[in-house]
Structure formats: structure tokens, C-alpha cells
Amino acid sequence: MKLAFHGAARTVTGSKHLVTLSNGKKFLLDCGMFQGMGKETESFNRHWGFNPAEVDYVFLSHAHVDHSGLLPKLVKDGFKGTIYATPATIDIIKVLLLDSAFIQKQDITFMNKKRIEEGRKLLEPLYTEEDVNRTFDHLKPVHYHQAVEVNENICLQFFDGGHIIGSATVFLTLTEKGKKFTLAFSGDVGRYGDPILHSPQTFPQADYIIIESTYGDKLHDRIDTYSEDLLKNIQETCLHKKGKLIIPAFSVGRTQELLYALNDLELDGVLPPIKYYVDSPMSIKVTEIVKHHTECFNRSVQKLMRNDADPFQFRGLHYITDKRESQALNADYKPSVIISASGMAEAGRVKHHIANSIENWRNTILITGYCEPHSLGARLKLRPETVGIFGMQYNVKANIVTLNSMSAHADYNDLCQYLSCQDQNEVKRVFIVHGEPDVQVEFKRRLLKKGFKDIEIPELHQEFGL
Ligand SMILES: [Zn+2]
Questions:
Q1: With the CA atoms of 358, 363, 364 and 365 taken in that order, what torsion angle do they form, in degrees rounded to the nearest 10?
Q2: Is 466 exposed, middle or buried (0-12, 13-18, 19+ CB in 10 A)?
Q3: I need a surface site. Which of 119, 136, 156, 335 has the fewest CB within 10 A?
Q4: Is the domain of 31 the same as that of 95?
Q5: Are 299 and 376 found together in one domain?
Q6: How far is the CA of 393 from the centre of ligand 1 (A)?
Q7: Shared-domain flag, residues 436 and 456
Q8: 263 with 297, same domain?
């Protein structure tokens, strides 16, 4: 068997690992899009490093675009096989992939206008809406724990990864020349004690493990303080300073966590009586999907729902889909909380809200998740004196706060706990993926200390014989 890493290798984006069995069958673990890699992003996304027409199956860990976003291109480039994912993941990627095609169409139309004037060759999107719709025909739902005989050599099981709804550890039992062995792929690992989701589940003993390492060198703040942290920021910004609290948030995961926390504060009778907006059509669609996948909720949410049927809705909350309504918020100076995508503030309506409020000391920008090093979110985290947005320089007068208690990614304690179901002596090799290089080196050091022996940090397109 061969294992090759065609993404998320010494970086946190483009998750894509190809397994080739000795009988020639090939499958992909994830098929993620590269994002935020600067000028090279485009070329990373156009060059697979393998032939998509030769891939027989895809096993998808979760819906985030950096894990699923190139599926339509895979289909466009000749993939004819089956894509296995949990039911919640399937519902969410349907929305995310259509959105991705739409954004590409918009961007390409804009860029080509200029190219026509300059007489240059026109650009093409990675894929279109038609490619996305054709991708849907390849999707096959698999519930957590259900053992699926993919073919006579591959048995698949998903275990809840606790990262976003539908997220999974992909566990495979493979038969090679009459011998059985096991491979576990973590996808992204969630945190223990998440307010909404189950904690990451244990999985059977694996011979080979591919594990993410986004926060392999960090300890997060305690998860149970984030409601308090959020309340403190609302009080300081909206009640004391009469300003706006702008929260860039991923449509999948973070937005629902914020809504759940705000609903919780309302149930406790402490939520300040101001306006709360979710200003992102995508976040609204995803929140609707999340509400229907109650199987992904942990016991405390299920218990709460016996008395509060919709734990993501509370007094004062308004959903904004209309663009004009969104723009109207700019001229509204009343204290409010605006939750808007994207989470790294690289795109989407939140960028406009930040540009509009950054020069006012009354306002706060609250960063709640991981930000790619070059993203606007990451630049703001450094609290610069000025910042460039849409080609303009703005003075940073607003308060910039980072909430570390809200990460959807495991920190190194969580990652070690995640691996604690494994006997280190039985594990033949560990591959560390999905992390910044120096973080991965640190995580490797910690895993060696825990007793894991053969640990690799693969480079992009590096292949290993197992
Ligand atoms: Zn993820």
C-alpha cells in the first residue's frame, strides 16, 4: 500500500491524502481546497499530483471547504466513484459547494472584465454549479459506527470527531494480500466538553494514524468560560461604550456556537436587551441544517431542547439575507452585536462591517477562531496601528479582542486525549498533517514523549510505502 499527501502537508489547508492499494484500487481521504496561500493558491488547486479518473472512492472527514472544496473539480476531471460521508456532512457540503461555485463565478467574471480590455487570455473557474450538481450524484451517506463493506478489501467506519456537526474520524480496515490492517484519519479533531457537540469519540486500534496538528503546540483557555467571555465583551462594548461588537464567524460551527451561547445567556436572564444580527445568507442556511441534525448534539443540548425547541433563537435576534439590509447596518449607530462570515474576515460581509467600524473606539472586533497568517483576521490580531481593507488604509481605533476559549480545534491536550484510546506499541506509524511546520515539530516531540515511535511530517506530494 502507498500513502501520498497531496494537501495539508506542512500547512493547514487543502486536506487530501491518497491511498493506493496493491491491487491498484485508489481512495482519497478528503478532497480539500487550498485557501489563503497567496498567489500560489490557484496553482495548488489546479495541480492534483495524481489522476482523478483513477480514484475509486473518497472518504470525507467533514464539510469544511479546506477538506471538501475540490470534490466538484475531482468529478469534472474524471472521478467516477463514490464519496462517503455522514448525513450531516452531506447536507452541509451541498450548500458550501454551491456557494463556492457561485463565489468563483463572481470573481472570475470580475477578473475577466479586465482581461478582455487588456486582450489577455480569459480565466476559468475551478468548477461550475453544474459540476457541483453532478458531484451530488456521487454522495453516499454513512452513519456514525455503521460498518460499510466498500469492497472486498475496504471496510469503512466513521466515529464522531466533535469538530463540527457531521465531522468524523475515518477508520478503515484494509485487506492487502490476505493480511488485515487498519488506518485511522482524524480529519479535524474537536475539543472535549464542547457546548453543543459530542466530545471526540474513541476509535479501534490502528496500525497507521494520520492526525491533524493545527494547535499541536498550544493550550486553549478553558472551554466553559466562553459564555462569560462573550457576555463581558457585549457589556463592555454595547452597554458601557454604546458601540458595536463585530464578530467574524465561520458559517459552519462558530456561528451556531455563538447563537447557542447567546441563547444560554438569555435563558439565564443576563443577555443585554440590544439587537443581535446574523448577517450572512450562508450562516442562516447552515444554521437551519444544523437544527435538523439533532443526532450530532450532546446530551445537555438534547435535554435543553425538551424545554427550548430552538436553542439557536432568542429575543432580539435578526437574520439578514438582503444585501441592502446589510448595508443599512453601516448607518445604524445603535449598540448591537453583528455575527457575520467569514471567520478569518478574508471575505464576505464581515469585511465591510470591519471597514465601517474599525476607526471608532467604541467598537470591538472579536476574533473567535483560527486565522490564516495572511488573513485580515490574523493581521487584526496583531493590533496594528493601521490596516489595509479593500485597498484602503484604516486607523485601528476599535478594540481588537481574541477569544481563545472558542476554538473548534483540539489543543495538544485534546489531541493527546484523542490518541489515548491507542496502544502506542501497536501503532506502526503516525503521520502529522494539517499544521504549520514549527507547530508540527513541537507536536511530534510531544508524541514521541507519549511513546509513539515512528512519526512522519510529510511534505506536499510525498509518498510513503507502508
Ligand atoms: Zn475543519
A1: -30
A2: middle
A3: 119
A4: yes
A5: yes
A6: 32
A7: yes
A8: yes
Highest mean pLDDT among 80-84, 115-119, 306-310: 80-84
Buried b (16+ CB within 10 A) or exposed e, 45-62: beebebebeebbbbbbbb
Rounded to the nearest whole angstrom, what is the distance from the C-alpha of residue 112 to the centroid of ligand 1?
32
State which residues form the domain around 237.
223-406
Output phi, psi for 453, to 5 deg.
-100, -65
Output the CA 216–ligand 1 centroid distance in Å: 15
61, 187 contact by CB (below 8 A): yes
Calculate how far, in angstroms, residue 215's C-alpha sits from the geometric centre of ligand 1. 12
Ligand 1 center from residue 149 Cα (angstroms): 26
Same domain? 428 vs 395: no
Q: What's the number of domains the chain is made of?
A: 2
pLDDT tens track for 19-69: 999 999 999 999 999 987 778 888 999 999 999 999 999 999 999 999 999
Q: Say what the pTM is.
A: 0.91
